[in-house]
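INPUT
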Amino acid sequence: MSTEKIPYKIYLSEEELPRTWYNVRADMKTKPAPLLNPGTGQPMGYDDLRPVFCDELIRQELDNDTREIPIPEEIRDFYKMYRPAPLVRAYCLEKKLGTPAKIYYKFEGNNTSGSHKLNSAIAQAYYAKQQRLKGVTTETGAGQWGTALSMACAYLGLDCKVYMVKCSYEQKPFRREVMRVYGASVTPSPSPETEVGRRILAEHPGTTGSLGCAISEAVEVATTTPGYRYVLGSVLNQVLLHQSIIGVETKTALDKYGVKPDIIIGCAGGGSNLGGLISPFMGQKLRGEADYRFIAVEPASCPSFTRGRFAYDFCDTGMVCPLAKMYTLGSNFIPSANHAGGLRYHGMSPVLAQLYHDGLMEAVAVEQTKVFEAAEQFARVEGILPAPESSHAIRVAIDEALRCKETGEEKTILFGLTGTGYFDMVAYEKFHDGTMTDTIPTNAELEASFARLPKVPGQS
Amino acid sequence: MSTEKIPYKIYLSEEELPRTWYNVRADMKTKPAPLLNPGTGQPMGYDDLRPVFCDELIRQELDNDTREIPIPEEIRDFYKMYRPAPLVRAYCLEKKLGTPAKIYYKFEGNNTSGSHKLNSAIAQAYYAKQQRLKGVTTETGAGQWGTALSMACAYLGLDCKVYMVKCSYEQKPFRREVMRVYGASVTPSPSPETEVGRRILAEHPGTTGSLGCAISEAVEVATTTPGYRYVLGSVLNQVLLHQSIIGVETKTALDKYGVKPDIIIGCAGGGSNLGGLISPFMGQKLRGEADYRFIAVEPASCPSFTRGRFAYDFCDTGMVCPLAKMYTLGSNFIPSANHAGGLRYHGMSPVLAQLYHDGLMEAVAVEQTKVFEAAEQFARVEGILPAPESSHAIRVAIDEALRCKETGEEKTILFGLTGTGYFDMVAYEKFHDGTMTDTIPTNAELEASFARLPKVPGQS
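OUTPUT
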């Protein structure tokens, strides 16, 4: 343990780059519920999942027991391009807030995808390559995941087909262009290229798409094109596993300086960043070795944890995917169009859902104008323009730090800064122009959505 | 000197962050020519420059003798937000090229301004604050400098007025928006707000502006508004001084691993990045302690070094600034509108101009389509989407590495990767769509521009 002053940025050396991912499921008493076959309602095993996912990724998806899973050397080499990622002591923000709290953030935005998504993209592309596939398909909303997967595929020489939610495709031409730099094909979704796309277009001719719909298209193409599989950037157990590198690095860096966080905060859409950040800390908590407060932050306009149902639901709109037990708003739920802050998926990772259900984690929902206020305050003193998604965590970190200011407590607050907002300037512009509003779904809207949850044995 | 394997990224510790800037003028036998008063043709001293520039910055501008100038602690603290910047060993690029050359690049893009410009922005803002000024004015073209200055001013609580070349203002609304996040006011130039702006608008009603014109406006506002001074992001001696932190860090990192570069390459617009990168190395060369090949890379569409005149010229279109002795294309020269690669200033830093004139440095001009080819090749293996400006250096680094492949020489190549291209996707899109063309000014165009160089005693 070092006794020197904690630097602004703690960089681990390449030698300290983790050699294993941390599988928090190994520590969970109640394991996350298995994926179910939507037709039979039966749990899906290795063979059932092979048409959709890469073999090794299915093994990781189903492995609830192995706590430490080795990271292949080739993936570690790729990680070295942009990792270990810095753990930043937010001295400037602390000073600005006048808080006795100590604030740390793990910054995942120092790579061209602009977010943590690259951590899982390279792993998934690597296993696809190992299986000698030609390529992979996926969906992307705001574009971080699609960009990350394009980068990983370009590096490994794999084909990459991205179905991009149509409204993002049109509003974010630059994201699309970055994916093209990396050689990916990008198709606005819903598209007339797939059966499910044609069906959705026929039913809703003017639709601007949704993540759930883009997933359906990507899955259809993967399962009908020889040599292709489908990959997903969040929600799944495997993705949280890969993202655990965020938490393992963070814990290694904090341990070096003898720092123990009191509160760990992350934004939550599908849960990949939060799940990755908390993994090794939650492991300690589950084993009774240490205690932490974990806070998931979600948008008030898409409040899966705080207002959703803990139930089996479809992962996609087209209902072609396995059923997952999540906190869900219903697979047809689409957040209001004026919601600019990302995190718009209707469900939440089964791992996090179970942990939340078991009372091991808290969740709060925040409104987007408050999120952008925090984003701007942060940018001006910490010098990083944060992604709207990440700014949800900033909002709550600032709120907790201000609470410490009132009480005089010197708490240590850690949050995940998942990425940068360089491709989100339209949202920042709305915020500055005062045209950004907050939208919260009504109870009636949610009830209507819940009414369409699938019938599953044992689920009322 | 470490004997371990050279990592992908060499990060110095915060302790190793340089404590002094390196003033290469102290090593130059022939000093850069002084700034001249455009009215009298006489060299301008401290008192002459005070209406325009901050006091301490003028001292730095005129100091040709002090080799090491201390960096104030407050500036070092700000630097710690994003520095030391990584020196990257381009293992992946080397492998892709199949070259025996060893390639290193100093990456300055890991901050929200997206470039090295922040190194001088914080220094200039700091001295303005020290002088108890209310604010500063400046111009920006592509927007990196304006963003950097906005960030520095937000941090210090200074007002920041940016005159942005009109075509960039319109084509890059997101850059403008980032500046607004940092609280700057951004005005498209030429504007009706200034005398010089009104004059230019009257003469050329449809003009989309130029850097030289935006400089004139910013200077006018600074000199007519109490409590304001003008700051500039390139060309000046003081800016190269601040940017020397790039070179000092790079040299420290290379020395640690016992690596000596054979070739040092940088893109050159006004010269701030190249001048900063080479400073301590050039110092060694000037003192006869070591030899290096230095290569300045400029766009073929704005070829100040390779086709310009070494002469006194105006720094701005409105002719309100001091005259500087530069390699210049004439202060009225405007590169073709289809030039997308940045680096569009008509002149070149007096320090670099003198070094080039004295045969201490080489220069090459490259065409933009070749630059974007190199950019894309680099992005796909090194994972960083480079700025078009930086990609000029990548082009020549790749060319030199391929030459090594032919000859079998294991040269060590170092280049400056000044920034990221996230706000340049329109240019990338043109490149992909095949609509990007190369434009080279004709000799007649240049001769016409040279004919308007100012009459200065001793200059034909």
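end of record. Chain A has a mean pLDDT of 95.
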